[in-house]
Specification:
Rossmann fold, 15 strands, 2 domains, 42% helix, alpha/beta
């Protein structure tokens, strides 16, 4: 076998031509979305006012293992993909571990993260359907940036409801979205009914992701030929993100790398679902015995401390009900929480895989996450996003265990993005003023109290 | 010939093992550095208190065409190199030009630019010499970040004098440097004599690059086992940057790409000198007839409107005298100038090549630069640094000429970095408040009046 280079790039010929739909091999499917009024499984027709047709078809597709990536999307992917699979030689050396560490790095595009993989697909299909405009929400801003980039490329107008506190704290993120031609509205705003309602009840609120989702959906439904797009959680988003896992698997096979464990950060679950998809499919078929580990913030612990229940996807309770691990749509992480990964719920697919024991999860506190981020930056060069640093923390902890036990495990993790727009959080860490927060059981009960009172 | 992929990555085996020293093939050498006291050519011994020994040897090496890159530096390069040579298929389509456009993209590392190529080398040699610390200056912050990354990797303390107005306007850049362990001191400061002098004369000054250089040199000279490192202008910096040109040339040869012109932005000249080095060497030998074009800001036009004269490298007039195109070390660009490329002088090598007619130069106004930057971002995805966008402007202008003439030229340009930390400038452009500035002849005369009164 050839020496393993620091960075493995696939050639254009080796790039995936299909997405991988893990649902087609799952022994039990995630329970269907439920209409909150009828309490019946949602139909494609009911989703049509909100989502683009092709995305609905993908969302409800439980049978096709491979779904072709149209050439118009593959051309977009070629601009910034394949992303490198990197051997963390320097981190290994610094940790003095017998473990081999690899990471798939999705941050080599201007959006700074994996979000672009689904943004490209969603905008392509919207344009193909002849839609006139799109709406979305963004929190930290990665998704909004990714979507603005795709909308600039495919030439489609975009309105982004940006969580107000983010828009104020991250004017530069807002400026990037605007540079790509996206219109940014801080949320809650007076442009929607739900926004006006929230503002009248809480005039000083900094907003939330759930509220921004509600506003974006309302605008999409009320505007002709306009649809809403979502950057995580949903099955079709995980489908698009499967390109991460497919590239990773191809690179591993090319260099005979056999991961013992695959670690990723989990917020809505799209990055992790995409990274592990093809490997998980093989595990379900009994072809590997990889340990899958999701790492989430202790301050927003949906998998490790949430409930597996039907819940709304947004604060305004306008979405279908999704069976997922959730803290309740009313749960809001403590203000001292720095990174992303602040969504109250979790992808239905990831939730089901976790529920059925195919993966484990753990939570970590943020100062330890930034310890890992800094160690990584100084040894591997790249300054990671705080979200991604949850995965680094997990990988470092496993590499240290290997050092203690002497085991030579192969650890692979997903480095979803860069932290160039998260320097306020790094400044807080560098100055020693960053604090940790673990919600008490009472705090969590307040969130659970917002779960819908349905018997499903 | 194989189809040309969007992005050409060399394999590790194909990566250069030597730097390319263009001085070894130049028919006439740039005139030597002059000691401002003795007015004699500077000696290695006179440079030793300021610079690391190996870098002085490289600076004065006019005979070896290839200089080996030590393995310890090649290992660092492997973390973020090779950088891709990208075919700008989407930009070509948008411009509807018969030209083929390629760009060598140096922004895929956390420092966001090519600066890391020389930072790695300089810190490696300093460590090898057993030095205890380094000092430097930074303006926009790319060089300071690059050096902090290299110092973190090779474990050497670093003090960065950051132009005060930059440190205030770019707290996040400062935070990145600190995350990598660098100590940032806004300049002018009270830590040096020259800083205290400037502060007492101009208490409210926002500082300048020339002033920060003076402070960094003073500190290096007065601190035991400490040296100063510089990120541009000098011959050894261009030598390290030649890896850009060597990778580009190898990629071109692999895919039979024959550039008709090579365009780059020019500030101190290190990126452009490095990009064109090996191609220029061939041109000098009569092996190609490539047109070399440097693009500089109209607000700081050292090549197009400067004088070819001996001048100091810094405001404090502490450096050796360098024969270069210069606006005078007292020249300071108008405050409305947004990007980098604000140095009063120009690399001695680039100055000599320009003087001898091997390359041309043009200047562009900044709103036109941001027009090009935005067009590029929306079509090619990557948000460019304002500096880099000068080269984009040049390439787009040439591609438009090709459309008008019907010529199918091959245009290659250097995209030195990303603009993620330059969003204040983009915001000014997006809001329509950005203005242009072209210094009057009278403005330039004020700068020329600061040239040293020597007859050399």
């Amino acid at each position: 076998m050839a020496n393993i280079p620091y960075k493995i790039y696939l050639t254009e010929d080796e790039m995936p031509k299909n997405w991988y739909n893990v649902k087609a091999v799952m022994k039990e499917l995630p329970p269907p979305f439920i209409h909150p009024g009828t309490l019946q499984p949602i139909t494609a027709d009911e989703l049509r006012p909100i989502f683009c047709d092709e995305l609905i078809a993908q969302e409800l597709n439980n049978s096709d293992l491979y779904i072709e990536i149209p050439e118009g999307i593959r051309d977009f992917y070629k601009m910034y993909r394949p992303s490198p699979l990197i051997r963390a030689y320097n981190l290994e050396k610094l940790l003095d571990t017998p473990a081999e560490i690899y990471y798939k790095f999705e941050g080599t595009n201007t959006s700074g993260s994996h979000k672009l993989n689904s943004a490209a697909a969603q905008v392509y299909y919207a344009k193909k359907q002849g839609l006139a405009a799109l709406t979305t929400e963004t929190g930290a801003g990665q998704w909004g940036t990714a979507l603005a980039m795709a909308c600039a490329f495919y030439d489609l107008p975009l309105t982004v409801y940006m969580v107000k506190v983010s828009a104020e704290q991250k004017p530069y993120r807002k400026a990037v979205i605007e540079t790509y031609g996206g219109k940014v509205i801080p949320s809650p705003s007076d442009t929607t009914e739900i926004g006006r309602k929230i503002l009248s009840e809480n005039p000083g609120t900094g907003g939330s992701l759930g509220c921004a989702i509600s506003e974006a959906i309302e605008t999409a439904v009320k505007t002709p030929d306009c649809r809403y797009v979502l950057g995580s959680v949903l099955d079709h988003v995980l489908l698009h993100q499967s390109i991460i896992g497919e590239e990773t698997k191809t690179a591993c096979e090319k260099y005979d790398i056999q991961p013992d464990m695959i670690i990723g950060c989990i917020g809505g679950g799209s990055n992790y679902g995409g990274l592990v998809g093809p490997f998980m499919g093989d595990k379900i078929k009994g072809k590997n015995n990889i340990e899958f580990i999701g790492v989430e913030p202790a301050s927003c612990p949906s998998l490790t401390r949430g409930r597996y229940a039907y819940d709304f996807g947004d604060t305004g309770k306008t979405t279908p009900l999704i069976k997922m691990y959730t803290l309740g749509s009313g749960f809001i992480p403590s203000p001292n929480h720095a990174g992303g990964l602040r969504y109250h719920g979790m992808s239905g697919i990831v939730s089901k895989l976790y529920h059925d024991g195919y993966m484990t999860a753990r939570s970590v506190e943020q100062t330890k996450v930034f310890d890992a981020a800094t160690l990584f930056a100084r040894s591997e060069g790249t300054l990671p996003a705080p979200e991604s640093a949850h995965a680094i923390r997990g990988a470092i902890d496993e590499a240290i265990k290997c050092k203690e036990s002497g085991e030579k495990k192969t650890i692979l993790f997903g480095l979803t993005g860069t932290g160039y727009f998260d320097m306020a959080a790094y400044m807080s860490y560098n100055s020693g003023t960053m604090t940790d927060y673990v919600p008490s059981d009472e705090d969590l009960e307040k969130g659970f109290a917002t779960l819908p009172n349905v018997n499903l």
